[in-house]
Amino acid sequence: MAKTATNTIARNLAGWLLPAALILAWETASRAGLISESVMAPPSAVLAAFVRLLASGELVENIGISTLRALSGFAIGGSIGFAFGLANGLSRLSRDLTDTTLQMVRNIPHLALIPLVILWFGIDEGAKLFLVALGVFFPIYVNTLLGIQGVDPQLVEMGRIYGMSRRELFFRVILPGALPAIFVGLRYALGIMWLTLIVAETIAASSGLGYMAMQAREFLLIDVVILSILIYALLGKLADSFARLLERLTLQWHPAFQPA
Amino acid sequence: MSVIALHPKQQQEADGAPATIRAPSPAPPTAPLAFSLRGITKRFGDKTVLDGIDLDVPQGQFVAVIGKSGCGKSTLLRILAGLDSPTSGSLTVAGGSAAERRSRIMFQEPRLLPWARISRNVEIGLTGIARGDVARDLSLQILQEVGLADSTEEWPSVLSGGQKQRVALARALVAHPFILALDEPLGALDALTRIEMQQLLERIWQQQKFTAVLVTHDVAEAVALADRVVVIDEGRIALDLPIPLARPRHHGSPETARLEGQILDRLFGRG
Ligand SMILES: Nc1ncnc2c1ncn2[C@@H]1O[C@H](COP(=O)(O)OP(=O)(O)O)[C@@H](O)[C@H]1O
Ligand SMILES: [Mg+2]
Fold it and tell me: For B65-98, what is each residue's pLDDT tens digit?
């Protein structure tokens, strides 16, 4: 037990070795004048920008705004996608009525709608929410549908034979069976969520992390630009780790998540 | 004995609960019947799979059904378990209330829920019958009988094929069914595990006294377990052979060999 724990820690640490070495090399190269100040700020300058923006409250405010946008858009698009995925997975009629249309809309890259969305919503919150929700909708929809369609029909028959009601059949057989696929959709959707928000905030916003980065670009504050990029990366990683944790907790039965 | 007929059309109504009460059947044979099939015919499109099967099975009998692949054994079993209805003919199940007439079916695949612990999987056998602590106690008890008392809190994925099939057996038996239909339940197991499972099945059948209908492609298995072997060929019963051997039976005795030979001859048309 203790040995495996030490092993896990060691393995996690190993993953950080390369980034740490890269940062060190980057700092050294900047100080030696190998990298121009106007191309890349050294890690120490990025750190200083971080401390400065943290103290002024600007950073926390912008992270808060961006996170709120991301999560609200995700909640809207994700729940609609989940609802359609369930409905179309469970009901043939619903699938016949809506699936073709949804698959057609899916072929439009949602970011291509930005000009239209700006015309509709201006650069208000509505524009960002709409884009994030639209981007998140499809991975959740498609994977929920696939998950439900992939549930072993023999298990469903077994549930029926043993007299499960439709409700029991759904909660005890169909939903758990679809869960691994739904998680694939969830993690994919979280990635799309941040990507969409970055693009939307960079093009059309007056607050948030993307806006902060664009402002900094105008004033040639390259340290702040890099800081924003790093924070985006961290937030993305955080969301993914959260989804993985959730996955590990709910899919304990799955051979892939059992201690070897 | 009250007799209830299942007509193909009515059978689908109300959760598969049988519908009409029939007039009592004429003079029952010596032992009370568990079920009887009369002229069961099943067609898929214009293909006739079962062509007028008549079969009376007394309560507590162990019947083995043998036949070549695709001859309609599974179809017959599904009709018996109420999962499909015959194109024509009737199934009559004896007994009183729905609980007393309960039938269960077991398949070649264990069909366990991978996301439910073993004891939870067994509790599925009590859906609509018992819940909570009662269901839990009953399932632990039956798991003990099938020799899995130590695995009740495992996930199905860590069990071997034979153990999974034992869980499926426990799930089928936890509510004490009147009829247990088994569709090649041991077909996917290795030879040694299969013999072990046969012994387990025989022991539990002797304890619980249900009526067993076992579909198998293994002639030795049929002769080892059954009171009676029914051979199906071209949609009809080609041979109905009593196996009057004392239990426990021994594999490879001259008497079993003779009976096996008789069945094989009929299967391959040398009879
Ligand atoms: N739902 C169905 N639709 C059409 N044909 C079927 C269906 N179920 C079974 N059959 C056909 O009926 C025949 C008997 O099948 P089955 O009862 O499964 O045979 P066995 O179990 O004896 O191998 C096979 O030829 C099979 O193709
Ligand atoms: Mg079969």
Answer: 999 999 999 999 999 999 999 999 999 998 777 7
Is B153 within 8 Å of chain A by CB? no
CA-closest candidate to residue A170, choices A87, A108, A92: A87
At position B244, the amino acid (one-letter code) is P
Tell me which residue of A241, A218, A215, A240 sits closest to A228, measured CA to CA.
Answer: A215
Residue-range domain boundaries for chain A: 42-250
Interface contact B155-A253, CB threshold 8 A:
yes
- Residues B240-261 have pLDDT tens digits of 999 999 988 887 889 999 999 9
Query: Which of A39, A62, A21 minimizes the C-alpha distance to A223?
Result: A39
Say which residues have a Cβ less than 8 Å from residue A122's Cβ, sequence separation at least 6.
Answer: A204
- Does the A42-250 domain belong in CATH 1.10.3720.10? yes
Instruction: State whether residue A253 sits within 8 Å of chain B by CB.
Output: yes
A85 C-beta neighbours (distance < 10 Å), count: 26
B98 and B117 co-located in one domain: no
* CA-based max dimension of chain A: 75
Domain-located, residue B107 = no
CA distances from B40 to A19, B54, B147 (A): 73, 7, 38
Domain of B203, CATH number, reads: 3.40.50.300
Q: Both B77 and B116 in a single domain? A: no
- pLDDT for A66-95, tens place per residue? 999 999 999 999 999 999 999 999 999 999
The answer to whether residues B75 and B184 belong to one domain is: yes
Q: Looking at the complex, report in whole angstroms how far the Cα of residue B82 sits from the nearest Cα belonging to chain A.
A: 9
Of B50, B83, B54, the residue nearest B181 (C-alpha): B83
